[in-house]
Every structure is written in structure tokens, then in C-alpha cells.
Automatic annotation (TrEMBL), chain A:
Top-level taxonomic group: Bacteria
Protein name according to UniProt: Bifunctional pyr operon transcriptional regulator/uracil phosphoribosyltransferase PyrR
Gene3D superfamilies from the UniProt entry: 3.40.50.2020
InterPro entries to which the protein is assigned, alphabetical: PRTase-like, PRTase_dom, PyrR_bifunctional
Alphabetically ordered keywords of this record: Glycosyltransferase, Transferase
Coiled coil region boundaries: none
Cross-referenced PANTHER family: BIFUNCTIONAL PROTEIN PYRR
Gene Ontology molecular function, alphabetical: uracil phosphoribosyltransferase activity
Domain Phosphoribosyltransferase: 4-157
EC number assigned by the record: 2.4.2.9
Keyword Glycosyltransferase on entry: yes
From TrEMBL, chain B:
UniProt cross-references to Pfam families, sorted A to Z: OTCace (PF00185), OTCace_N (PF02729)
Keywords on record: Pyrimidine biosynthesis, Transferase
Function of the protein: Catalyzes the condensation of carbamoyl phosphate and aspartate to form carbamoyl aspartate and inorganic phosphate, the committed step in the de novo pyrimidine nucleotide biosynthesis pathway.
EC number: 2.1.3.2
Family the entry assigns: Belongs to the aspartate/ornithine carbamoyltransferase superfamily. ATCase family.
Pathway, per record: Pyrimidine metabolism; UMP biosynthesis via de novo pathway; (S)-dihydroorotate from bicarbonate: step 2/3
Subunit structure: Heterododecamer (2C3:3R2) of six catalytic PyrB chains organized as two trimers (C3), and six regulatory PyrI chains organized as three dimers (R2).
Sites where the protein binds L-aspartate: K87, R170, R224
Single Gene Ontology BP annotation: amino acid metabolic process
UniProt-recorded name of the protein: Aspartate carbamoyltransferase
SUPFAM superfamilies reported in the protein's UniProt record: Aspartate/ornithine carbamoyltransferase
Amino acid sequence: MSQKVLLNEKEVNIILHRLACQLIEKHNDFSNTVLIGLQPRGVYLADRIAKILREDYKVENIQLGYLDITFFRDDFRRGEKPLEANKTKINFLVEDKNIVFIDDVLYTGRSIRAALTAIQSFGRPNEIELLTLIDRRFSRHLPIQPNYRGRQVDVINNEKVRVNWKEKDSEDSVYLIER
Amino acid sequence: MSELSVNHLLGIKYLNEKDIQLIFETADHFKEVINRPIKKVPSLRDITIANLFFENSTRTKLSFELAEKRLSADVLNFSSAQSSVKKGETLIDTVNNILSMKVDMVVMRHPNPGAGVFLSKHVNASIVNAGDGAHEHPTQALLDSYSIRERLGDVAGKKVVIVGDILHSRVALSNIFALQLQGAEVMVCGPKTLIPRYIHELGVKVETDLRKALNWCDVANMLRVQNERMDISYFPSTREYTQQFGVNKELLNSLDKEIIIMHPGPINRGVEITSDVADSKQAIILDQVQNGVAVRMAVIYLLASKIKQ
């Protein structure tokens, strides 16, 4: 198993700030916008983006939630490993809100498909956008594209993109891992 | 998340502690789901479940049916009163006929102890025991423990007394197994005639003085007096039972500490507990009912995930 660095800490940091600025361009003061991190690994990115918006760009009223899509996935009973559920935490109404889904890697698009269905349980949003740190090009199974992307990469199917976060993995970095 | 160690839920005695933790963690997620504006997930779209009730039930049947529907399973309901069982069909034939319509899971309540175990050996479907005679009622025990965990944080180390008709109660037996598996201390309390003679061999304390039992415990699970299962008189009169083993507000207030009151339902108000106790803050009877749906969703979801495609 070999691995290659796609992004180091400095590059991750620059990209996060750029993504935050792009969000401000579109959503101004976030008065009608909510950020939703997708469980399990999108929540670290969502926490970071929310923190940058609050602390570095002084945006108040950032509403942040976490959405777990386990029970909405299309591969129940189809994989070898049982699906693992995580916590959903959405303490606000999404009716008529502009939602930004936040996930670390966009690959087949199936998780986003599940998230689009799952969020409907909480109401009818006005609009849903997608922000991902890594966009794996040419690997989509569904017609889903990000509105905000950190870095687009070409990765073949037996390779894996791993995003590490300081809070969990002791460094900010993105690796390409050959399986 | 790991998997359950079993393919059927026949009784608590076939589970291990990890299974119970897994069911509870999964139930936590489903409890969040059933508090959403839209309380439904699509996980079990391709699963069909038959609810076979060979004995009367209101809340268990409704609770299972709701849990199945909230998981998007297709549901068949069957009760023996309107069926060919009356015409002399055997249990295996009845179930195999239903299974030939491509049913994946069977939830069954039956008056005979061991009916679920018997069925699991003879038919090709995942079986959930919804009560078999005076043997086990595993989902009730799971939701009871889940409700204790929700209120007190943990089941381990807690003292639980089960009061009433222990002899005829499947709820009591399943609760004893479940509570002990999680490290709780269990006591049974009731008239001597309604306490099985060898119950102490299960490692439970036996007490016939209700006040002593309540002073000992953190949680009291009040069972219903099951008149329909009593072939002979086990106590002189309902009034005498109530005087000795009924809980009222004065008794609760006179205890050294505040204990939690549970009841698996249906309540005989004024017999095992009075109305002011049933409706008090100390009673978590309606929490038990709500948790029942989440716990049953977890059980069905986890068992369904083991059914091969």
C-alpha cells in the first residue's frame, strides 16, 4: 500500500479560506442559510468552515447541523460490512432555508443522493448546494456536481482519497492511497 | 457498528451484553428519527414482515406495526381469531403458507412457551418473539432497560424490583435476564403463590414485603395481575392484593428516596398502582411506550441487515 500527499496543511488551510469566501459571496450574512455537515467525515470540514466564517470573517448567526444518511443509503444488505449509523443533530427548521451540504470527498454521488432524500424529513428547503473539499472527477454514478470544490483530482477506482483532520487524525492533510 | 450475534430474537437469554448495547445505540438513532417532522426512513423497502398474533395484543402489535412502517417495510397482519388455525391448520403449515408469499421476517406472539424457538428451527425466515406464553417477551425487556438507561444514565449497578405476578409473567423473566446481563441487581416481590419456587436460582432476591422492596430499589416495575392466566385462586381477593402489593402516592412519598415507577401495560388502575402514581412524574410508563417503537425499529433493522439478498 503506497500513499502520496495530495494536499498538505498549508494548502488545506488556503483552500478552506477560499471556500469560506465563496460562501460569503453567495450567502452574505447567512440569515437564511444553514450549513449541514454529512456524517461521518463531512462534519470535521463543516466545523472548520463554520469556525473560519465566525472567527476570521466575523459572520454571526452561522447555523450548523449534522446529518446522518445511514438509513437512507441504497446499499443496505448489499455490502459485506454492516452499515454504521451516526448522530443527526439539526436543531433548527430547514423549511424555506438555503442549505449547504458539506462533505470531504465527492466520489460516486450516492451519499449526496441519500442526503437529498434524508433532509426532506426535516422540511422543504428553498435550495440545496454542495461543498466538497475533494472532487473525484470521472467517477460519478449519478448526475451530481459540487457548487463549491476545494480541489478536483483524477483518481482511479482502486485508489482511495483520505482526508485527515487535526481534531481526529493529528494533522490536516489529504492523501492518495493505493490499495 | 458490529452485528447481532443472533439471526432471530427469540429471547433475551440468547443475547449477549454487546447485542443489547448495539440495539440501544441503534435505538438512539431511531429515537431521533421518530421525532422528526417526517418520521420514516427507507431502509427496509425490500423487506416484508408478517405479524402473527395467536394471542390478543394491543400495544405490542401496534408498536411493532408502527416500527415496521417507519422503516418502510411491507407489513402483513394476521390474528388467529380470523384464520385457518381455527380449522385445524398446524403452526408450521400456517407460517410456511405465509412465507411462500415471499415474507422475510415473522413477528409472532403465541400462547405456548417456546413457539418462537420451534418455528425458527422449521421455517426459513427471521423470527422475532413478541411474547410466547409465560416464557419470554424480549422486546418488552429491552424497552424497559432502554427506558431505565434513558432516565438514570446506565442500567449497570441499579437496583430493580419487579412486583406482582412473577409466576405467569414473560415480562418478568425477560427483564430478569436483560437486567442481569447489564449488571443490575434484581429483586422480585409479590404474593408467595405468584413467585416461582426456584426463582432464587436465577440469582434474584425474593421479598414479600412491598415497603422493604421499594426502600431497597431505584426502579420498581409493576406487573399487571393476569387474571386470564390464573386457573386457580392465587390470592384471596383483588382488594387484599391491592392492600399488600399495590403502590399508592402515600406509600411512595413515605420512602427514603424518589424511585422510578414502570409498568408494561395495560394498567389495572387502582389495583397494582393508583391513578395518581400512574400519572405522576416518577412514572415513565408513556416513555416506555415511545421507546418501544424505537427499540423495535432497532431490533428489526439489525435482524433485517442479516437477511441475505
